[in-house]
Sequence to fold (161 residues):
Amino acid sequence: MSRFVLPAIVVALIAVGCSSAEPLEGIDPPVPIASEDMQTLLSESTEPVVLNVWASWCTPCRSEAPLIGRAAEQFEGDVRFVGLDVRDTPNDAASFIAEFFPTAPIEHYADPSGSIPTDLGGSRGVPLTFFFRPGGELSYLHFGVIDERTLVLQIDELVNG
Fold:
């Protein structure tokens, strides 16, 4: 057996194990949303919005997800948290939500093409975290994994600024 065959088999087995073919019981996949509808959601929001862009296949997204979930719980009622799953499958997205956000008050939407973040001024890379004032004005955009200090400072700016 070639030295390249065994690693390829291991990678294939891991990929099969990480993908769920059956829908998860009790967990709905994110609702697909068009770019115009996301922009309307933001512009009509009377609360500040933290929009976190993620994907189940994104390892950095997995590392920041627990922080995003805790912040959504901590700031519930003051800030509206929205998750945008990009370029993903519904079942994998539902698994990600079940793992990282089972009780977090986050509205989740799907963007299969991944075009919404760029339409909002971001990039195609994930993770991204947008901070919007009530009415949809962009306050701050964070590229990459967000740390607790930056997240709390930007939320404080939205709430008290």
Q: What stands out?
A: The mean pLDDT is 88. The domain at 5-160 is CATH 3.40.30.10 (Glutaredoxin). The longest strand covers residues 80-86. Helices lie at 5-18, 35-44, 59-74, 90-100, 116-119, 148-160.
